[in-house]
Amino acid sequence: HFVMPDGERGFWIDWHDGSRPYERYLLEEVLPAAEALLGARPSRERRVILGVSMGGGGALQIGMRHPELFGGAGSLSGLLLDQEEARSLIRTSGMRFFVDLERVFGDGSDREFFDSHDVYGIAKRRAAGFDQRIFLAAGTREDPEFLRTTRRFHDHLTALGIPHAFTAYDGGHGWKHWAPLIEEALRALLPAGDP
């Protein structure tokens, strides 16, 4: 089963100002409602989270923050930022015209908030016992920041010795480019032997 909630432009985190609890919404409302409706409660090993673009970064971050719920996490064309890049985004990004980034992330000074959402730090803290499947992909014909940050996170996982799958696909930023990757991502994220 696939469940595809809309996270608007919310970065799939519980906003720093408390006004938009996207992560809580996904974990406490969407998952229980979907599992009740579908009559399916997959094991942790068979429950995976995958997202595209902003949802890719969100899926990876939520999945890695909740390894007790998700056996795998993947990002297609996510902007995978470390703490310094996230702080820079708050100060300089054109996204500021679409969403108030200080409401989302705070002013960048709340170290505990950033530490808890930093996929680089999460991977480093969990490296010794990391037991999730990770899939990363970004295109060679989209804004170069997507591939640069995805490749950088791939290099980070490699340096930590965390197994994962990485694809630099020949394509851009959109569903016609992501759709062919869904099957590859699911093969990488689901346990070996699953269809």
Structure, briefly:
With 195 residues, the protein is of the alpha/beta class. The chain has 8 helices and 4 strands. The protein has helices spanning 22-38, 54-65, 83-92, 101-105, 111-117, 119-126, 144-160, 175-189, and strands spanning 48-52, 72-76, 133-139, 165-169.
Description:
- The structure is a single chain.
- This protein is an alpha/beta fold and 195 residues long.
- Helix content is 47%, strand content 11%.
- It has helices at residues 22-38, 54-65, 83-92, 101-105, 111-117, 119-126, 144-160, 175-189, and strands at residues 48-52, 72-76, 133-139, 165-169.
- Helix 6 (119-126) runs parallel beside helix 7.
- The chain starts with 21 loop residues before the first helix and ends in a 6-residue tail after the last helix.
Order of helices and strands: HEHEHHHHEHEH
**Sheet with most strands: strand arrangement:** 1-2-3-4
Low-confidence stretches: none
Number of helices: 8
Number of strand segments: 4
Helix content: 40-55%
Quaternary structure annotation: single chain
Strand-residue fraction? 5-15%
Q: How confident overall, as mean pLDDT?
A: 91
Rg over C-alpha atoms, rounded to the nearest angstrom: 16 Å
What coarse outline follows from CA principal-axis ratios?
Answer: globular
Task: Return the structural class.
Answer: alpha/beta
Secondary structure layout:
Layout: H1 22-38, E1 48-52, H2 54-65, E2 72-76, H3 83-92, H4 101-105, H5 111-117, H6 119-126, E3 133-139, H7 144-160, E4 165-169, H8 175-189
Parallel strand pairs: 1-2, 2-3, 3-4
Helix pairs in contact: 6-7
